[in-house]
Amino acid sequence: MYVLGINAYHGDVSAVLLRDGAVVAALEEERFTRIKHYAGFPTQAIRRCLEMAGIAGADVAHVAISRDPSANLPQKALFALKKRPSVRLVLDRLKNRRALREVEGPLADALGLDRTALPTVHNVEHHPAHLASAFFCSPFGEAAVAAIDGFGDFVSTSLAEGRGNRLEVLDRTYFPHSLGMLYTAVTQHLGFLHYGDEFKVMGLAPYGEPTRVDEVRQLVRLEQGGTFELDLDYFRHWSDGVEMEWDGGYPSLGRVYADKMTDLLGPARRPDEELTGAHEDLAHSLQVVYEEAAFHVLRGLHGRTGRRRLCLAGGCGMNSVANGKIRANTPFDEVYVQPAAGDNGTALGAALWVWHQALGHPRSFVMDHAYWGTEYPDADVEAILDDAVPGRADADWRYTATVYGSSEEAIEATADLLADGNVVGWFQGRMEWGSRALGNRSILADPSRADMRDLINLKIKFRERFRPFAPSVKREALHDYFVGAAEDPFMQQVYPVQPDKREGLPAITHIDGSGRLQTVAQDQNEAYYALISAFEKRTGTPVLLNTSFNENEPIVDTPEQAFACFHRTRMDAVVIGDTVVRREPIGGRPADSEEGESS
Ligand SMILES: [Fe+2]
Residues 238, 240, 241, CA angle at the centre, nearest 5°? Predict the structure, then answer.
């Protein structure tokens, strides 16, 4: 039986197809529309799911939508009575509900069906969908489960206990109190205004000192039993109709902090203003206060369940710095965070909720790798090269393509390139599910080279110099390189790099000595594991620098997009399947190459 889960008209819309409870395909619409965090309807993701399963829309028995406008109506009514929100807030919410009611048309279109022939459609409330995405595909038979985010269906935080194929929701924190909103408000105050910019602030935080913790603590009150409340005087998301918009598919959120926050924290930074030590200190202080609050919530959850295993989801579940500290700061000793812990993952959770909770089927599926996306095994890379660069040369560069007879040879050649200091685009197999590249759509480099971070940030990713890069480490070498780390194939936890390894790995060691690691196991990604092993043979280091294969755009989906990204940036080579395309400068290096080009 096929169950299709979708996240629609929210950030990061997506589709996931289950066959008898196991994931067949999991796709984010942004990869197809090429609009980051795309927030419309996941039409292309749905069609590709069907295509990959080789089925028609009529074969889908149930559709699960990760939103339920009729959920929590008493809380909504009470809020409206008590707080008297603006007319705009009410109108925005009505507009939102209308879009949801209109799901049937786009859904029928995506499935290629008449509206009257749609499968059974289930509305699964946003937070139960998050909880289900965390627990039902975890390796745990029983666990405590938490979802912590901005908001969805009027809820920001929910706590649950999972047993077998059942999830029991124990507690909810309702709008307008939200730890996600706390993080977003200070992120906006720091001049980062785009949807998803919270990650930048998390990356900035270690550059500063926690000098402003006392001020940031005033924004949120931690209360008995693991609950919390925002001091609403500092916020305006609840009073002034600040709703998420998605014009043209671009999600955006108006200003959520009130003027009083500026009185407390000083003037907000303009997006074009230089980042100073004061901004870094505020980012650090925010991260500290967020962690205090998150651990407080999780300790409360432990108190209610007595469980030692935790499944975590929600936008805040993507705070990998906090995630890496959960085991040290709470009684939980095992933590599972699936790769799409944000709203993208609610498509997965809605589908799993329907399969287990609504239809009563037993558990049978564990998500132990992230490779559930598209693949292009028949790509003719030479033809793509000839199309993009006629004559295989342009003004500055000459391109050569080598088609190897086996993946082993291509891996050996790639390891040579990496060991020689080249930056390599690595495009293999099925696309990753979730926002992290995990060795199938990655840009790779030697982590021991000191100049590599600036080189990649400034010449390939064209982004802020402070953004760190992540290490992929062979599973067997995890504890040689990281302190107190847990295995994590999804790159969801940050741990300290072993002190004696930091100097040798400057490109992946953040300023505070930490790294957001991915463990790579042979049975989870054979080609990537073989590549790291081949690199280790040459350098003695079982670690690669791994960043997503993109440049200010969603991660590349097709070989053509991979090649276009390679072509317009300063990568040295791209490997697509068993074909390696290298480029070399014609008549010496182009003018800007002195700034730190690797050897
Ligand atoms: Fe959410």
Answer: 80
Q: How far is the CA of 218 from the centre of ligand 1 (A)?
A: 25
CA of 52 to the centre of ligand 1 (A): 27
DSSP tag of 546:
E
Q: Cα separation of 33 and 561, whole Å?
A: 12
Neighbours of ion ligand 1 (CB under 5 A): 149, 152, 343
Number of H helices and E strands in the chain, helices first, is 21, 23
Distance 259 CA to ligand 1 centre (A): 26
Query: How far is 249 from 10, CA to CA, in rounded Å?
Result: 9
Structure tokens at 290: 């967020």
- Residues 524 and 369: beta-carbon distance below 8 Å: yes
Nearest to 148 by CA among 220, 253, 46: 220
Task: Decide: helix, strand or coil at residue 145.
Answer: strand
**Whole-number Å distance between alpha carbons of 552 and 213:** 32
What is the Å distance from ligand 1's center to 56 Cα?
A: 30
**Distance (Å) from CA 421 to ligand 1 centroid:** 40
> pLDDT tens digits for 197-232?
999 999 999 999 999 999 999 999 999 999 999 999
Q: Please give the distance, rounded to the nearest whole angstrom, from the Cα atom of residue 148 to the centre of ligand 1.
A: 8
User: Could you tell me which residues are beta bridge partners of residue 496?
Assistant: 514
Residues 221-259 as b or e (16 or more Cβ within 10 Å = b): ebeeebbbebbbebbbbbbbbbbbebeebbbebebbbbe
Cα–Cα distances in Å, from 539 out to 496, 504, 508, 543? 22, 11, 16, 10
167 contacts: CB under 8 Å, gap ≥ 6: 128, 131, 132, 135, 136, 145, 160, 161, 353, 356, 357
Confidence of residue 257 (pLDDT cuts 50, 70, 90): very high
Closest to 512 measured CA to CA, from 206, 211, 209: 206
Question: Ligand 1 centre and the CA of 342: distance in Å?
Answer: 6
Q: Which residues contact 82 (CB under 8 A, 6 or more apart)?
A: none
> How many angstroms does the Cα of residue 126 sit away from the middle of ligand 1?
6
Q: How far is the CA of 121 from the centre of ligand 1 (A)?
A: 20
d(CA 191, CA 385): 40
Mean per-residue pLDDT of the chain: 93
Cis peptide before 176 (omega within 30 of 0): yes
Is there a contact between 264 and 185 (Cβ–Cβ < 8 Å)? no
Reading the block at residue 96, the tokens are 């939102």
Q: Tell me the C-alpha to C-alpha distance, in Å, between residue 517 and each of 488, 508, 510.
A: 7, 9, 11
Condensed to tens digits (0 to 9), the pLDDT of residues 428-469 reads: 999 999 999 999 999 999 999 988 988 888 778 777 777 779
Q: How far is the CA of 157 from the centre of ligand 1 (A)?
A: 9
Lowest mean pLDDT among 96-105, 132-141, 152-161, 223-232: 96-105
Q: Output b/e per residue, 406-419; b: 16+ Cβ within 10 A.
A: ebeebbbbbbebbb
133 CA from centroid of ligand 1 (Å): 11
